[in-house]
Design a protein that fits this description.
Strand content of chain A: under 5%
Order of helices and strands of chain A: HHH
CATH superfamily of the largest domain in chain B: P-loop containing nucleotide triphosphate hydrolases
Shape of chain A: flat
Strand content of chain B: 5-15%
CATH class of the largest domain in chain B: Alpha Beta
Number of strands of chain B: 8
Structural class of chain B: alpha/beta
Strand order of the largest sheet of chain B: 2-3-1-4-5-6
Largest sheet of chain B: 6 strands, mixed
Radius of gyration of chain B: 29 Å
Distance between the termini of chain B: 74 Å
Largest interface: A-B, 35 and 75 residues
Helix content of chain B: 55-70%
CATH topology of the largest domain in chain B: Rossmann fold
Number of helices of chain A: 3
Oligomer: heterodimer
Number of domains of chain B: 3
Largest sheet of chain A: none
Number of helices of chain B: 26
């Protein structure tokens, strides 16, 4: 039973992470902004407010699969120069 | 440079200069910014601002690092932004109080036109003679005081890559009173005759300043004559590429074996330690079989990047661009497409972003559309897996057959890209040919430090991907491949009855004509997230198909299960393979339309299917 729960938790975490990573950044930011607004409404517990706010912050950062490709090394060459003089 | 004191006096500085003059390095030196300094196109497209407080006056300097520009007559978006900013034409961006024009002391002939044009718009300015140490060590001669007098603006020596290399510049800025806000003078794009006059003025100023360039070493001149020769040049380029792909297979053999042994050993240990159940299956068949199958290709990726970095650092790559320009021009591509396409060999995402430097929209769209055909590093694990399983590692003359096949696949991608460009440039994206003019840097030995840092960065990126998105997708795939469990009395491996088995069989209907079984068809789906995930997916699926087998044995498994025709068909598929989701998203962002990413996905899918179909049918016919 405990083993199945552990496996279930790992799978759910993987699904959440993959969905988070593969969602386009703008959609992720919109979603988390709405969530954070909802979390800040009066009557919500501070834990919910903190969690939704942290998600909103995280959405601003780059994440996931190829979003770090820009940081990966791409071969470069000296830029082309125009010579119209 | 940042101080703590509150200041009342502030000055808005604009850093201006031609690309590669060390402007961004000076910006980092002045502001202490942690921004990465890189040379490839696109890095200074965005607005960059920093600040520092001067040590003497406690003046706050707000520094803007403007995109590189050769003159105030723009040919690219970058140059237009720089011109408009300096002339106060950008909305919500007042013109700068002061300009720091950074010039490369080893290339003044090219840099001074911009200095003269900036002087003429009337905004107070100082010239930072950057890389002055390098110029001196290479034997360039210049009388700085004479240059200052001829230009009529202060000229300060800087060495942006050295600690305190900006000191003299800051001292000079601090010694000056605030110039006050001044509107730039009117600027009109110069006529051809006026440009010629400016160039004449550049030559006069240089002569008057005692500027003498060192004679080029004869050996380097001879080397260039050989490397750039119309016949010997392409032959040398082909030989270098040949050698690189040979090395990718031969040098990587033992480190790959070490990783394989490690993964297999860990799998056997987990198999013996954990009790039989879902958790053991998740670790052994899901995570280890999937992630291990991708991890094993790290040595090959690093060897490929070692050569790319070494060629880049040595100054050879721009020469390769020059050699390939004729080929690119013959299919109607702009010479400026070379750098984005070269970047796409690492990943199509930065390659597509680098197309921003192509001024003509149609040229840019054509380059974006073919960028995914360049073989990105994520495809290397797929190629390497299939080649290792089906192509014997034997010598063909002085070459290794596996390396030859890999070279052919990379070359196939380039040829396909050229053919697609040829069609696009004669139909939907017709434009005139724009010639390529390149600045060729001097040759030098690659710096070991640069190589080590580049390889370390690449390793980090690869391991990060393996440890995050690939790991997550492998866990999901394991779940889909393990549940639901087979009904009582069911025959065959459990995976056949799972969700993944069902999805695989639906997809098999589409892919059976090109020789793909349900396992391959299934692996293509997570491969859309990142191409190398397809290898991990095959690892997981085959591990679960082989009841109880230990991870790390994917190569013999597929060698026994697939026909050679299927393997060749899959290789053909991956030459054209529809790109990953990230590439599509970037294309949408860069073109501001869904039309282009959808058209790209459709044409690549059609080409991949057609190529695989022909390959499979021809190979099946010949082999039967």
């Amino acid at each position: 039973m405990l083993e199945n729960l552990l496996v279930g938790a790992i799978v759910v975490a993987a699904v959440f992470y993959a969905a988070w990573s593969l969602t386009p950044g703008s959609a992720r930011r919109n979603l988390t902004r709405h969530l954070a607004d909802w979390g800040r409404r009066p009557g919500r517990s501070s834990i919910v407010a903190h969690a939704t706010s942290a998600l909103e912050q995280a959405a601003v950062r780059k994440s996931g699969d190829c979003s770090n490709c820009g940081a990966s090394h791409a071969p470069r060459a000296t830029e082309q120069r125009r010579n119209d003089g | 440079m940042n101080g703590q004191a509150v200041t009342v006096d502030s000055m808005r500085l604009a850093l201006v200069g031609v690309p590669n003059c060390g402007k961004t390095a000076l910006f980092n030196r002045l502001t202490g910014s942690r921004q990465h300094v890189a040379n490839y196109a696109g890095v200074t497209v965005e607005r960059k601002e920093g600040s520092f407080v001067g040590p003497a006056r406690r003046r706050l300097y707000k520094v803007l690092d403007l995109p590189g520009a050769y003159s105030l007559t723009p040919t690219t978006l970058d140059e237009a932004i720089t011109r408009d900013f300096l002339l106060g034409r950008l909305a919500e961006e007042p013109p700068p109080d002061f300009i720091v024009c950074v010039v490369d002391a080893t290339n003044l002939r090219l840099n001074l036109r911009l200095v003269i044009e900036l002087r003429d718009i009337g905004v107070p300015m100082v010239v930072a003679l950057n890389m002055s140490d390098l110029a001196a060590s290479r034997g360039f001669q210049l009388d700085r005081a004479r240059l200052e007098a001829e230009l009529g603006v202060p000229v300060i020596e800087t060495v942006a890559v050295d600690a305190h290399g900006e000191r003299k510049l800051v001292e000079r800025l601090e010694s000056m009173p605030h110039p006050g806000r001044r509107q730039p003078l009117a600027w009109h794009d110069p006529t051809f005759r006026q440009i010629q006059d400016t160039q004449r003025e550049v030559r006069r100023v240089l002569r008057a300043s005692g500027y003498v360039e060192p004679l080029r070493k004869q050996a380097l001149a001879r080397l260039d004559a050989l490397v750039m020769h119309p016949i010997a040049g392409p032959a040398i380029l082909a030989a270098i590429l040949f050698f690189v792909f040979q090395a990718v297979f031969t040098w990587a053999a033992w480190p790959m074996e070490v990783i394989d042994t490690g993964v297999s050993g860990l799998g056997a240990w987990l198999q013996g330690t954990l009790p039989d159940g879902a958790l053991r299956s998740l670790f052994v068949d899901g995570i280890l079989a999937g992630v291990g199958s991708v991890l094993i290709f790290l040595p090959q990726i690093l060897i490929l990047f070692f050569f790319i970095l070494a060629l880049e650092d040595s100054g050879y790559l721009p020469r390769a661009a020059y050699l390939l320009d004729r080929l690119m021009g013959s299919v109607g591509l702009s010479g400026r497409a070379f750098i984005p396409l070269l970047s796409s060999f690492a990943c199509a995402v930065p390659g597509i972003m680098a197309t921003r430097t192509i001024p003509n929209l149609r040229d840019r769209l054509a380059t974006i559309m073919i960028a995914p055909l360049m073989t990105c590093s994520a495809r290397l694990p797929v190629y390497a897996l299939i080649i290792a399983a089906f192509i014997p590692s034997r010598a063909v003359g002085p070459f290794n057959l596996q390396g030859l096949v890999l070279f052919t696949l990379y070359f196939g991608g380039i040829i396909a890209a050229m053919l697609v460009a040829f069609v696009l440039k004669r139909t939907a994206l017709k434009t005139a040919y724009h010639p390529l003019l390149l600045e060729l840097p001097e040759y030098h030995w690659p710096h070991l430090n640069n190589l080590a840092i580049g390889l370390w960065e690449r390793t980090k990126v690869f391991l990060q991907r393996v440890g995050t998105i690939i790991l997550a997708l492998m866990i999901i795939l394991w779940f889909l491949s393990s549940y639901p469990t087979p009904p009582p009395g069911a025959e065959g491996p459990a995976i056949v009855h799972s969700f993944a088995g069902m999805i695989g069989r639906w997809l098999e209907v589409v892919f059976a004509p090109i020789g793909f079984n349900w396992q391959i068809s299934l692996a293509l789906v997570p491969g859309l997230a990142a191409r190398e995930v397809a290898v991990g997916a095959l690892g997981t699926v085959y591990s679960l198909s082989n009841d109880g087998d230990v991870a790390g044995t994917l190569v013999p498994m597929i060698a026994q299960t697939w026909s050679l025709a299927t393997a060749l068909s899959l290789l053909a598929w991956y030459v054209f393979a529809p790109q990953c989701i990230s590439t599509l998203v970037v294309v949408k962002r860069e073109t501001n339309s869904w039309r282009y990413p959808l058209a790209m996905a459709a044409y690549l899918f059609a080409l991949a299917y057609l190529a695989s179909f022909v390959t499979y049918r021809v190979a099946s016919g010949l082999l039967s």
